[in-house]
């Protein structure tokens, strides 16, 4: 489904990615681990076409991501749901409105929005916090709203960049369980993290990065750095 | 299509209200621009009217000698009318001139007696020539001199042309009007450019407060039009509101200037405002909407790169 082919990225003479090659099959849950600066976030940026590689190519299905014309990028990004460490929720919108907003941006009808937003919030166990503003939610709840927003347009792929970075252990556990649930429903998940507990509890594929290179690729990964 | 239009309108309105303070600033700045545009409209109308009046009032009077033959004068009138610069030529015969003279001096015994004693009509016929442009008087005068020289009557049949006495006044007025128009043109350009820059920056400020929202929009795959639409609408709303306020502001101002302009320029500015409201409305509203729209498009462009 996703194929990185000898991807390198150089920022001002310092390489963030060196010759990265790997594949992700549909329905996989893959964790990318590594220290800060190992190249995890750069890798994500390549995938959502935020940045172009210096060398190599990134394929999403049969599509070379970096040859997509600018005008078509929104359509491409709609296939991917993104979750970030800092949530990126709009503070002046309620949980419901934050999710509805993502659907509006995708041009969904009002009926679909009325139907799907509560479903997405149920899936992340926030059916009762629908009308709360982000400031009234805990960190874990905010991240769950962000996940609901990421899945509401039924993307093929969920990218979670350090989704548990700002969360306490219980919230971390909940968020990972939700991501696992989404993966069980058939969506491919790529998650970056440096939380050992999360990786060990998941027992899924782990890609270890160091200094911009992929140094390990274990199918039933344990965190080993 | 309809859904996205509805959403654009809705979020445009929401943005307008939520950033009320920035909106207010943008509207005030745009009002300054539109006020300048409107003032130029009024000023140019005043100048045009007064120029037309001056041109109407000042014309060339050709006085003929008493022994000039009416047929010859009428022939000259015809050849004058054939000139492209000439707008109209009026013939005032000796008799008409006398009647006009008597009317002007009605009740003045001495003058009446003097004319009676003369027995004959002492007044010559007159041709009143009006040209299309004041600057063409010189050419007409030269033409008349030439005609006068070729006439068979020895001294010529033209007694005098009073163009020379008016020449100074006409030249001066034309120069003043030209100078005013030139100065106001440059002043307007500078003011308009300045207010476009300020408006652009104010709207950019409004958009800057929403940059977080724009980031999220792009993240969830919103198309450029979906992101841009509400801001463009917001810009148009700034322009429209500023235009309406400016038009309202011109009402008391022109009313206040009404007497002064009527006395000085023979044009009632308030009456012009009311009569030509459709035209003024279109110009001000059109400039407002264009200004808001262009400023928004320019201001948002930098947030939509890549």
Helicity range of chain A: 25-40%
Low-confidence stretches of chain B: none
The SS-based structural class of chain A is: alpha/beta
Structurally, how many domains make up the residues of chain B? 2
Major sheet of chain B: size, sense and barrel closure? 4 strands, antiparallel
**Biggest sheet, spatial arrangement of strands of chain B:** 2-3-1-4
Q: Tell me which protein chains meet in the greatest interface and how many residues each side has.
A: A-B, 24 and 18 residues
Count up the helices of chain B.
11
Give the C-alpha Rg of chain B. 31 Å
Judging from the principal axes of the Cα atoms, what is the shape of chain A?
globular
The number of distinct β-strands of chain A equals: 10
Looking across the biggest beta sheet of chain A, what order are the strands in? Answer: 6-7-8-3-9-10
How are the SSEs placed, and which strands pair?
The complex is a heterodimer of chains A (225) and B (306).
Chain A: E1 2-11, E2 14-24, E3 29-33, H1 40-47, E4 55-60, E5 63-64, H2 73-77, E6 80-84, H3 95-105, H4 110-123, H5 139-151, E7 157-161, H6 169-184, E8 188-193, H7 196-202, E9 205-210, E10 213-218
Parallel strand pairs in A: 3-8, 3-9, 6-7, 7-8
Antiparallel strand pairs in A: 1-2, 1-4, 4-5, 9-10
Chain B: H1 2-18, H2 20-57, E1 60-64, H3 70-81, E2 86-92, H4 94-104, H5 109-118, E3 126-131, H6 137-150, E4 158-161, H7 163-208, H8 211-219, H9 224-265, H10 269-275, H11 277-301
Antiparallel strand pairs in B: 1-3, 1-4, 2-3
Helix pairs in contact in B: 1-9, 2-7, 2-9, 2-11, 7-11, 9-10, 9-11
Structure, explained:
The complex is a heterodimer of chains A (225) and B (306). With 225 residues, chain A is α/β, with parallel strands linked by helices. In chain A, strands 6-7-8-3-9-10 form a six-stranded mixed β-sheet, with helices on both faces. Chain A has a four-stranded antiparallel β-sheet with strand order 2-1-4-5, with helices on one face. Chain A has helices spanning 40-47, 73-77, 95-105, 110-123, 139-151, 169-184, 196-202; strands at residues 2-11, 14-24, 29-33, 55-60, 63-64, 80-84, 157-161, 188-193, 205-210, 213-218. In chain A, 33% of the residues lie in helices and 28% in strands. In chain A, α3 crosses α4 and α5 runs parallel beside α6 (169-184). Chain A starts with a strand and ends in a 7-residue tail after the last strand. Chain A is built from seven helices and ten strands. By secondary structure, chain B is an alpha+beta fold. Chain B has two domains: 2-54 and 174-304, no CATH class; 57-164, Alpha-Beta Plaits. Chain B contains eleven helices and four strands; from the N terminus they run ααβαβααβαβααααα. Chain B has helices spanning 2-18, 20-57, 70-81, 94-104, 109-118, 137-150, 163-208, 211-219, 224-265, 269-275, 277-301, and strands spanning 60-64, 86-92, 126-131, 158-161. In chain B, strands 2-3-1-4 form a four-stranded antiparallel β-sheet. In chain B, α7 (163-208) crosses α11 (277-301) and α9 (224-265) packs across α10 (269-275). The longest helix of chain B is centred in the middle third of the chain and has 46 residues, at 163-208. The radius of gyration of chain B is 31 Å and the shape is elongated. In chain B, 29% of the residues are buried. The mean pLDDT of chain B is 79. Classes of the chains: A alpha/beta (225), B alpha+beta (306). The interface between A and B is medium-sized, with 24 and 18 residues.
């Amino acid at each position: 489904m996703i194929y990185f082919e000898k991807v390198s990225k150089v920022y001002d003479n310092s390489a963030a990615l060196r010759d990265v090659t790997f594949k992700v099959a549909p329905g996989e849950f893959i964790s990318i681990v590594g220290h800060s600066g190992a190249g995890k976030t750069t890798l994500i940026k390549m995938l959502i076409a935020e940045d172009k590689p210096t060398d190599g190519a990134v394929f999403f299905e049969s599509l070379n991501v970096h040859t997509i014309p600018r005008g078509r990028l929104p359509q491409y990004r709609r296939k991917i749901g993104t979750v970030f460490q800092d949530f990126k929720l709009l503070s002046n919108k309620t949980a419901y409105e934050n999710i509805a907003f993502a659907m509006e941006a995708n041009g969904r009808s009002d009926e679909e929005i009325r139907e799907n937003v509560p479903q997405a919030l149920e899936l992340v166990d926030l059916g009762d916090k629908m009308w709360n503003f982000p400031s009234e939610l805990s960190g874990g709840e905010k991240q769950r709203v962000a996940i609901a927003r990421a899945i509401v347009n039924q993307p093929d792929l969920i990218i979670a960049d350090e989704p548990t970075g700002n969360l306490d252990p219980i919230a971390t556990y909940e968020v990972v369980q939700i991501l696992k649930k989404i993966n069980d429903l058939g969506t491919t998940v790529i998650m970056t993290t440096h939380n050992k507990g999360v990786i060990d509890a998941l027992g899924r594929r782990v890609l270890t990065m160091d200094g911009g290179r992929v140094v390990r690729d274990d199918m039933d990964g344990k965190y080993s750095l | 299509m309809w859904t996205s239009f509805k959403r654009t309108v809705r979020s445009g309105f929401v943005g307008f209200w939520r950033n009320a303070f920035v909106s207010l600033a943008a509207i005030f700045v745009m009002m300054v621009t539109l006020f300048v545009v409107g003032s130029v409209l009024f000023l140019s109308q005043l100048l045009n009217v007064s120029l037309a009046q001056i041109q109407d009032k000042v014309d060339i009077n050709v006085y003929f000698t008493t022994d000039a033959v009416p047929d010859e004068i009428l022939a000259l009138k015809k050849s004058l009318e054939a000139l492209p610069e000439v707008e109209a030529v009026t013939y005032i015969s000796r008799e008409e001139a006398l009647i006009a003279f008597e009317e002007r001096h009605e009740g003045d015994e001495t003058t009446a007696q003097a004319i009676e004693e003369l027995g004959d009509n002492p007044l010559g016929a007159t041709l009143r020539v009006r040209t299309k442009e004041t600057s063409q008087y010189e050419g007409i005068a030269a033409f008349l001199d030439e005609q006068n020289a070729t006439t068979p009557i020895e001294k010529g049949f033209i007694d005098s042309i009073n163009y020379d006495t008016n020449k100074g006044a006409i030249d001066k007025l034309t120069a003043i009007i030209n100078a005013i128009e030139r100065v106001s043109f440059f002043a307007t350009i500078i003011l308009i450019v300045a207010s476009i820059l300020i408006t652009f920056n104010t709207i950019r400020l409004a958009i800057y407060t929403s940059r977080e929202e724009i980031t999220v929009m792009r993240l969830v795959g919103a198309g450029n039009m979906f992101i841009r639409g509400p801001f463009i609408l917001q810009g148009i709303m700034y322009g429209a509101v500023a235009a309406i306020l400016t038009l309202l502001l011109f009402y008391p101002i022109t009313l206040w200037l009404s007497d002064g302009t009527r006395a000085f320029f023979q044009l009632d500015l308030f009456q012009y405002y009311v009569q030509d409201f459709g035209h003024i409305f279109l110009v001000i509203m059109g400039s407002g909407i264009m200004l808001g729209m262009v400023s928004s498009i320019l201001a948002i462009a930098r947030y939509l790169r890549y």
